[in-house]
């Protein structure tokens, strides 16, 4: 813990970076953002192959936008595909949106991805995010993998009794009952969790035991990050 | 479907952020200490459900279940989806931080509206729950798709084609959600009616 940078710096930096890049319409900002993202991804030793696969293939929404833009943006036509005209401006605009989205994703992935959600929740608490919201985040993540296992167990049990997933109303009925069982179990577990918390003296908030100790290193990173963000903002808006 | 980073223009992002902040404030006001673990575990359950791929014709789709969460949590759907989408942005890079407001609004708003509209039907026995479940499940997803399409159209003339494609992609999912949500609601109504109260 002592060797790490204060996670609040990473959260604030990522958010401001995303805001500046997302609202900018200049190539210079996108290029610098992309370089920053690649640099940070490299520095945090992310696997390049996994990163590229996760980014390029995962986002159906971005894909639909990027595929249609070259044909719908007015400009100088460079190719014809049946009734569709591919324009130079459209192609550039699609590339612009694509790189913009990916530079933000890279920075988020590099700075927040390797962090534990509990660490992020703790940092959000110290950033004065409403306590109820932080508790909601904490509990949701705490029980995520547990409920996932529970659902896999339900599904496996159903398959052992002859359930085979297919496109049919009878199959959807079984899916629904499995999901309903998952929701009932979550509901009941929540009551038990709450009762156990009451027995331990819960009064609607989490007393925080661990506090961040600001280190000289944190001052260094905040100043560096601040200068970078001011530079980016002036590049984007001036 | 989640809107990714860097596509929408600033006014749309800002409006989404403001509406989600308001909805979340209302939702948090109703969350008593007792309701927090419940909302959290139901959010986790919806998250797990969204990872399940359900076969649909030659392909498969994953569920959203925003309508169901709206029926159970009402305004709590706003903080619930905010948390859900934040986790998806950090863990899987779906959606993003700047689009958190817009995406939460797209999911939670139609869900809350439909949940309030369908409430009278829900109290009319198992058949009422079946119909209410279908309407809420399908229309909450369709509403989410419609909002995504509208936001894209506001961003620029050249985004209209993508908007139409995305709305069309929501149609089969909406139908499937309707069926699944109808079955879930009638089941809950029979076995554990207090969950839908």
UniProtKB/TrEMBL annotation, chain A:
Keywords, sorted A to Z: Cell membrane, Membrane, Transmembrane, Transmembrane helix
Location in the cell: Cell membrane
TM helices/strands, residue ranges: 12-43, 55-71, 91-112, 219-237
InterPro entries: ABC/ECF_trnsptr_transmembrane, ECF_CbiQ, ECF_transporter_component
Cellular component terms (Gene Ontology): ATP-binding cassette (ABC) transporter complex
Main location: membrane
GO biological process assignments: cobalt ion transport
Membrane topology recorded in Swiss-Prot or TrEMBL: Multi-pass membrane protein
PANTHER family per the UniProt record, alphabetical: SLL0384 PROTEIN
Official protein name in the record: Cobalt ECF transporter T component CbiQ
Organism: Thermodesulfatator atlanticus
Taxonomic placement: Bacteria, Pseudomonadati, Thermodesulfobacteriota, Thermodesulfobacteria, Thermodesulfobacteriales
Gene name of this polypeptide: cbiQ
TrEMBL record, chain B:
Annotated InterPro entries: CbiM/NikMN
Its membrane topology: Multi-pass membrane protein
Gene3D superfamilies reported in the protein's UniProt record: 1.10.1760.20
Gene Ontology biological-process entries: transition metal ion transport
GO cellular component assignments: plasma membrane
Membrane-crossing segments per the record: 12-30, 36-56, 68-91, 97-117, 129-150, 162-188
Assigned keywords, A-Z: Cell membrane, Membrane, Transmembrane, Transmembrane helix, Transport
Main location: membrane
Subcellular location, record wording: Cell membrane
PANTHER family reported in the protein's UniProt record: METAL TRANSPORT PROTEIN HI_1621-RELATED
Record protein name field: Cobalt transporter CbiM
Organism of derivation: Thermodesulfatator atlanticus
């Amino acid at each position: 813990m002592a060797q790490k940078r204060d996670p609040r710096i990473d959260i604030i930096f990522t958010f401001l970076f995303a805001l500046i890049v997302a609202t900018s319409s200049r190539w210079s900002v996108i290029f610098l953002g992309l370089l920053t993202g690649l640099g940070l991804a490299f520095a945090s030793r992310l696997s390049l192959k996994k990163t590229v696969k996760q980014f390029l293939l995962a986002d159906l929404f971005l894909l639909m936008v990027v595929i249609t833009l070259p044909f719908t943006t007015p400009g100088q036509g460079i190719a014809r595909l049946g009734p569709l005209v591919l324009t130079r401006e459209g192609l550039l605009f699609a590339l612009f949106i694509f790189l913009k989205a990916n530079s933000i994703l890279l920075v988020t992935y590099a700075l927040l991805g390797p962090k534990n959600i509990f660490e992020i929740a703790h940092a959000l608490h110290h950033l004065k995010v409403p306590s109820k919201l932080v508790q909601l985040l904490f509990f949701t993540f705490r029980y995520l993998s547990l409920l996932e296992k529970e659902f896999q167990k339900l599904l496996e049990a159903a398959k052992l009794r002859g359930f085979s997933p297919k496109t049919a109303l009878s199959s959807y009925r079984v899916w629904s009952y499995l999901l309903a069982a998952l929701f009932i179990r979550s509901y009941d577990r929540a009551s038990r969790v709450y009762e156990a918390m009451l027995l331990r003296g819960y009064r609607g908030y989490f007393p925080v035991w661990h506090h961040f100790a600001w280190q000289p290193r944190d001052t260094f990173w905040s100043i560096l990050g601040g200068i970078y963000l001011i530079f980016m903002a002036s590049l984007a808006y001036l | 479907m989640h809107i990714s980073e860097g596509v929408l223009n600033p006014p749309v992002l800002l409006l989404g952020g403001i509406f989600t902040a308001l909805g979340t404030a209302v939702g948090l006001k109703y969350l008593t200490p007792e309701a927090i673990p419940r909302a959290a575990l139901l959010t986790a359950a919806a998250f797990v459900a969204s990872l399940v791929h359900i076969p649909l014709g030659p392909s498969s789709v994953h569920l959203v279940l925003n309508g169901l969460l709206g029926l159970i949590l009402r305004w709590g759907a706003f903080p619930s989806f905010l948390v859900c989408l934040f986790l998806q942005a950090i863990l899987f890079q779906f959606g993003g931080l700047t689009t958190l407001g817009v995406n939460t609004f797209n999911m939670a708003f139609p869900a809350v509206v439909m949940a309030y509209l369908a409430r009278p039907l829900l109290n009319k026995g198992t058949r009422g729950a079946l119909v209410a479940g279908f309407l809420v499940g399908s229309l909450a997803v369709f509403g989410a798709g419609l909002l995504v399409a509208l936001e894209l159209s506001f961003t620029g003339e050249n985004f209209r084609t993508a908007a139409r494609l995305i709305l069309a992609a929501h149609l089969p999912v909406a139908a499937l959600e309707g069926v699944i949500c109808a079955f879930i609601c009638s089941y809950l109504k029979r076995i554990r009616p207090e969950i839908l109260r």
